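Feature request disguised as a bug report, sorry. It would help if multi-protein outputs had a clear separator. Right now it looks like this:
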Amino acid sequence: MLNQTSRRCYRFLWPYIKRYRPLLTIGFLCVVLASLLQLLTPWILRYGIDFISNGSQPQDNLVYHFFVNHLDFVQPGHFLAGYAVLIIMVVGIEGSFRYLMRNLIIGISRRIEYDLRNAYFQHLQKLSQSFYHRHKTGDLMALASNDLEAIRSMLGPGLMHLVSTVLLAVVALWLMFRINWQLTLWSLVPLPFVAVVVNRLISRINKQFRRIQEQFAGITSKVQENLSGIRIIKAYVQEDQEIVQFKELNREMIRRNIDIAKTHATMHSSIELLLGLGIIALLAKGGGMAIERQISIGDLVAFLVYYNMLAWPMIAFGWVLNLWQQGLASTERVVEIFNLEPDIRNNEQTDFSISKINGDIEFVGVHFSYDRNEPPVLRGIDLKIAAGKTLAIVGPTGAGKSTLVNLIPRLIEPTQGQILVDGRDIRSLPLQLLRENIGYVPQETFLFSDTLRENIAYGICCPRIEEIEQATETSQIKVDLDQLPLGLDTMIGEKGITLSGGQKQRTAISRAVIRQPRFLILDDALSAVDTYTEEEILQRLKTVMQQRTTILVSHRVSTVRYADEIIVLQDGCITQRGKHHDLIQTPGYYRDLYKRQQLEKSLEQL
């Protein structure tokens, strides 16, 4: 009986398997034919040996009678060569079917792995931001590589050898009964002991494999973190410490692999020992029966060959069970990810008839908390921004500014309250439509390992040269193109490592404005540029901002002073709101910030 976990894994894999049912059917037909032809060879060998030893025409020698009745032109002296040719023909045909079965079944398992990896990546794209806060990147990478490979091995070699070994074992035992039932019963004595060994060790292998997969995920996470943070590691001179930690992880990986190798070795050697003892007993028993002419020498030879054939199914069955245990363990890990539904998605509230967004946005009593057991990050936010207007948000670190703007593209959802876009609940808008109308420059700039041109045009299909030039002019990254070897076609390295912090931010601004979105969100997007460049960018952004709803988040008064409305966030609440000239005359956080920055500017001039 299959347990609930196994049934869930099989249900998950079945849609991927059934796509290839016709080819799989042909593949398994080849498995059956190859196995039957393999079993035919010892039977022919039996007849050949009996022909040599008897020197006569035994009544049950079907091959001999075939030669006599249908190939009467063959001389009796050449019959022995006929047996040899017949064996060669059978082995050749068997090899052809074996080639086809491996080519079809293992090839299909590769295609299933391809489909699974694509589906896995596609599913990851749908999951919400909170999912990535809870799961390590290394774990997700291990699932995409190691676990999917284990599933492929289960569906390819595992499934193929399972059918082959079961068929070989059943038919070989039947043929052994045909030769001599007493000798067959004698040969079955070691099999219960083999079953006990396999049953005991296979569960241990499953646990050990899961521990190996977990350790592999840990190593992958460590490598990923080191490659991403290599500059910090070097800056703090922690290379030796990281090497030591990696060696410890690797040493544990080796130890766990050695443990499973020992278990494998124990299982295989135990099976071979038990079957070897069975061969000794069969030689003693069968040899006596042959001497007493209860069976022929050909019978004994064929019987021993069939018994040796049983040795492979016994060993292979343990190996196949191991593949299935590993594959099911990996499938279970993958299913856990596939069963996760994105927290934020289109649902029954979504109105797919909406095809256009004007740009009005309103927050009505919005609260937000990352954890129910912790105090809310945002409390009672009431805010309205008309289409084409600019809102600026200032406040101390940790006040909730980035959290507030993350609610607009629905990267997170409010825990209480409502957000309206053009008077409609934001959850009624198709998610893709909403995000297509947003140009977002997050606080942490991320660039892809590609050319500067491709990073600017990311998310735009076939952008015109004029659009790219206008975007680079708006962000002022254009003035730095002469410093780059190939201009816009310069490869900027992983995460834009070859660019300065200011160049990264300006590239991200270009990427946002080229979309011509209805909402433009700049979350501290000018913090890494100097004041002169900031002024140039803001002057060029004015034209862009007039046509769309803009939200500016900044710690600089110089960035937000031209906004239509400025709000001050403190402890998740709006404590001040108004225009720049009104707020600098009102006691509070904004006036203090303005005075402090004016003082800093004066000191710099001195």
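(second protein starts here, but nothing in the output says so)
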Amino acid sequence: MSNKQSNLSASISTPQEFTDLLYRMLIEPQQEADLLKYILYVRKSTEGEERQARSLADQVAECEELSQQLGLNVVKVYRESESAKDPDIRPQFREMVDRIKAGRYDAIIAWHPDRLARNMKEAGELIDLLDKGVIRDLKFKSFSFENTASGKMLLGMAFVLSKQYSDQLSDNVKRGNKRSIAEGKYINTAKHGYYKDAAQFHHPNGNNFVLIKQAFQMKLNGKTLNDIILYINSNSYQHLGKLYEMNKSRLSEILRDPFYTGVLIYGADSIVDLTDKCDFIPAVSVIDFLRINKISDLTKGFKVTSQLRSKKYTSADLLRGRVVCGVCNFPFSSGITYKYLKNGSKKGYYYYRCENKKCNFHNKSIRAKVIVDFVIQLIRKNKLATKHNYKIYLNQMNTVIKAKAQELTSEKSSVVQKLNIKRKSLDQVKQLLLNETDEKVKLAFKLDYKLTLQKIEELEIRLDAINNILNDSKSFIFSQKEFLELFQKMPDIIAQTRDMKLLDTILQNMFLNFTIKNKKVLDFQAKEPFNILLDHKKSAAFLKGRGSGTRTRGLTVPNGAR
């Protein structure tokens, strides 16, 4: 017997010691080999509302904190400053996906699904790679994901909801902008003739301000737009620090903009007297401005419409407008009411209330959980997870996809035809610009060129969107296995969903409306194909004699409301 064997025999004498040794020799090396290689992907757009999103550094810090908590093996960090609204424009994202396909990495960690995709082409690609096992796992700091059929369904919904999240973010940004405007600040590019200081206030921009001021005076004296344009452009006019060539369209906007009198109109509901908020110096008096812009023109340009009426903000969005009073048939209003607890905290309750003064149920309310509990019991009673129902679902989805494909194919032909016409028009304008010597005519051609090019870009974006939908339309039909698993787990998914936006999306995709009477669901209308899957005899019997049912765990609403 060798010395090595002798030493080993001396140190290993019990089954437990032998177990520990084998574990270290066989299991631990395999665990190390199986340790998934995660990519940490963070993204922040520099355009639109996403500029206000969480910074790249914040995303990295929070995702690294999560990876440490879960013991994840992060081997690469990708940072990207691009929008995810349109597909195939993010080089870092594409490199990441290609390297995962090549087997260099296994999984992804991100702050939220909307950092990975906000368009259905790339969202569908990620879900497809999950299905095939190419992407072995996804982790998110602010979203719970399980690699199951129902988990993928919820992930798909999260991708769809990214636009809704973006809209909510846009609302928050607009509210912040509205506060700034009320203070006399201006959050967009500086107006012509002015510059903005660090606090976003406008100040006259030297000779450029003098030229804009003179433009108003020349118009008041009867000069034509062409005369004014020639005067401005011949005096080295600058805007935003660069030489600027004034044109008719821009000059008309300037002459009709009340900003130059010291009155700022922003959006549909903000009108601010800048002279009252800061040391603003107008370029024209109100009297002269009104003379330049005849009353009829001014009225037409700044017509007060219903859009100027302020809209009451509400945070209560779960099935809003889809719950009807069974006494008077009027839609319930929805909202959140708060109750203060003994410990000093407050608890919120989502409710529906009848505000029809002629109704016997006027000013009475019901909790939203009554409807959520009803839906959970209804699905359990119907037992939707059957192969027969999957065939119904598959036929219905194929019919819908076929009809949508026909509609989109027709639209595609129209878009292609318009694109060809616009491209020919662009070539013609190019030739005219090359041959034209009259500077005034050239200005008109340049504007035509710019507008045509903009229209071509819009048509190309729409064409890409149509092609993406046509190519990917069938990728979101559930397989039979996914369908059965989804509807087996659907009651639990609904009961455990604490995010109000996500729950609202699930219920709105399944139901058109609910009718409530005596604080119970009297009737409901389901959407196709969910409506076709329901056994209407069972549903009718359930409506007549249901019991107390399953209780939900609650919903996530502002300030912890439920």
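Even a blank line would do. Unrelated, but nice: The two ends are 73 Å apart (CA to CA).
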